[in-house]
User: Which sequence fits this backbone?
């Protein structure tokens, strides 16, 4: 079959909402785009464990400690599903780690911001997990089967995280003056970076058209960002707090909230590695990987020894076995 | 049946129960704290998840023991309850959280073993193995306690402990019988931790009374534990161990290593900075 035919059949499947599975033919660009996107997503889950992990030992109550531990553990699980999904496209987890550690692969820039108060655990749950859900719910209908299925499981847990985060903020908002202060402060710091999580504006997002054609993406960055603003602008009222945007205003005509300009200079700087925690986050991952090398070697060496012993045992017993006719 | 009759009503019994519950809870809380320090830093993602899960189990068990102690204390006149617990900041209400966060190091009753730093993966695995083996045999005994609350917690927890024991045993075997480096590391961990193992088998008076055990039971526990350790060490191609005359102790009397103060400074700072705030 010639390539034109393959392309046509592939696109036909996509148009009919038939999932593409690992063994199916797919254009190289489709494969590459997915590997990049899924591995980036996996790295984000794993790097994302660090800013929240930062507060596990300092959680203010045993209940909050248990919830936070479970949350960070969920994120590790998300990383695992996503690495597995990416592996179905013909890349190994070690190769993906390699790309992360060398700086070649990116992860979500939001995790390059510091968590400096307990309220940040609330703001991350509400805004960061919230933005992730906005992005990911459409991905659970993505054309690539393994990615879509991973997203279904992940989204269920993310909505838990979002509710738990909001509940942390709600408790703070009803608390003492000092608690209300850290609550507002956390919202102020996490709001704009959360809006940046949807990526550059559609004009600056050259891959969007192709990704939409392939149904990897279902909505544009700006559409999702608007949806997120509309939801948060209402939710923040329950907290009795404000979003740090003087231009935020309901637009009756558009039936959406208008909002102020995003600082894209900051966005691109954080992407390029100049965010407040880029160096720390990456260094921490690299260190964990390097410190763990001897552990992985030992596990491997032990498995090999075990396999050899099993082989010898089988071979010895082979001689005493009766031939089976 | 009224609430009063559900709890041991004799003063001395209550006293020993509270102390024993705090001992159990403190061990769990500090174990959980140390294990949780690994979260996000493990050598293999799957193992990071497993260890975080174990940290969660430890914290969960700590909560059960603290909550039981808090329930008993809440049913007493307040001054009496406050006299039983060595708080250094008087809580508005005695809860699992005030028990965890408003007592200073001198009031903590955990074994010294659990507060030692994580060290490398070998040291952490060996520590979890030692502790889980001890807890496994102890909870087998506690399941039979006539205090149904305590027996219930032990029964519920032992399933988790069994898993921790299996998981950590497998790691001890893997590291012992892995590479030269991993063997050296586990031997070094052995040197570091062994002086703290003996304390697990020196019961305080309140433990014997609350657990309804004679000292001989702890002696049996010690023998079973050592047998388990040596069984796993043999599979790990590590040398057999025996107890030495001397071991470190003091945890149950509130005399700790230098490490505990730092753990508590971190763990307790929020509730102490914002007294009586709700989180
Ligand atoms: Fe996640
Ligand atoms: Fe999440």
Assistant:
């Amino acid at each position: 079959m010639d390539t034109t035919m393959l392309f046509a059949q592939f696109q036909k499947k996509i148009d009919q909402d038939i999932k593409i599975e690992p063994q199916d033919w797919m254009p190289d660009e489709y494969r590459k785009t997915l590997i990049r996107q899924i591995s980036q997503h996996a790295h984000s889950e794993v790097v994302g464990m660090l800013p929240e992990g930062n507060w596990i030992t300092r959680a203010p109550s045993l209940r909050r400690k248990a919830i936070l531990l479970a949350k960070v553990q969920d994120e590790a699980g998300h990383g695992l599903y996503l690495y597995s999904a990416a592996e179905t496209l013909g890349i190994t987890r070690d190769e993906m780690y390699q790309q992360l550690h060398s700086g070649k692969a990116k992860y979500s820039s939001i995790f390059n911001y510091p968590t400096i108060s307990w309220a940040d655990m609330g703001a991350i749950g509400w805004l960061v997990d919230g933005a992730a859900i906005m992005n990911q719910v459409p991905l659970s209908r993505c054309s690539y089967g393994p990615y879509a299925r991973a997203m279904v499981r992940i989204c269920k847990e993310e909505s838990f995280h979002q509710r738990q985060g909001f509940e942390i903020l709600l408790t703070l908002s009803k608390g003492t003056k000092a608690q209300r202060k850290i609550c507002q402060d956390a919202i102020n710091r996490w709001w704009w970076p959360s809006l940046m999580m949807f990526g550059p504006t559609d004009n600056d997002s050259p891959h969007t058209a192709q990704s939409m054609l392939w149904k990897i993406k279902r909505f544009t960055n700006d559409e999702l960002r608007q949806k997120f603003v509309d939801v948060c602008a209402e939710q923040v009222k329950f907290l009795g707090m404000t979003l740090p945007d003087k231009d935020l205003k309901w637009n009756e005509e558009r039936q959406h909230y208008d909002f102020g300009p995003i600082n894209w200079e900051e966005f691109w700087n954080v992407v390029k590695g100049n965010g407040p925690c880029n160096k720390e986050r990456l260094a921490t991952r690299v260190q964990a990987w390097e410190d763990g090398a001897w552990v992985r070697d030992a596990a491997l060496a032990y498995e090999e020894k075990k396999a050899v012993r099993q082989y010898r045992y089988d071979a010895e017993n082979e001689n005493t076995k009766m031939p089976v006719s | 049946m009224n609430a009063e009759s559900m709890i041991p009503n004799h003063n001395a019994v209550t006293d020993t129960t509270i102390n024993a519950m705090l001992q159990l809870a403190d061990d769990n809380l500090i174990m959980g704290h140390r294990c949780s320090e690994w979260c996000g830093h493990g050598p293999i993602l799957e193992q990071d998840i497993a260890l975080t899960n174990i940290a969660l189990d430890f914290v969960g068990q700590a909560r059960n023991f603290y909550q039981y102690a808090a329930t008993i204390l809440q049913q007493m006149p307040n001054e009496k309850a406050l006299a039983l617990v060595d708080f250094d900041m008087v809580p508005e209400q005695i809860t699992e959280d005030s028990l965890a966060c408003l007592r200073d190091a001198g009031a903590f009753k955990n074994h010294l073993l659990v507060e030692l730093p994580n060290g490398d993966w070998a040291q952490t695995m060996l520590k979890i193995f030692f502790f889980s083996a001890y807890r496994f045999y102890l909870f087998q005994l506690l399941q039979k306690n006539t205090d149904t609350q305590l027996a219930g917690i032990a029964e519920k927890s032992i399933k988790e402990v069994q898993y921790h024991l299996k998981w950590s045993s497998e790691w001890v075997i893997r590291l012992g019988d892995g590479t030269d480096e991993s063997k050296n590391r586990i031997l070094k961990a052995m040197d570091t931790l062994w002086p703290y193992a003996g304390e697990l088998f020196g019961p305080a008076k309140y433990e014997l009374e609350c657990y309804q055990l004679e000292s001989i039971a702890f002696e049996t526990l010690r023998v079973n534990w050592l047998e388990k350790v040596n069984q796993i060490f043999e599979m790990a191609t590590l040398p057999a161990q025996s107890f030495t005359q001397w071991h470190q102790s003091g945890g149950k009397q509130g005399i700790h290593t230098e490490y505990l103060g730092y753990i508590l400074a971190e763990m307790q700072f929020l509730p102490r900075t914002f007294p009586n705030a709700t989180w």
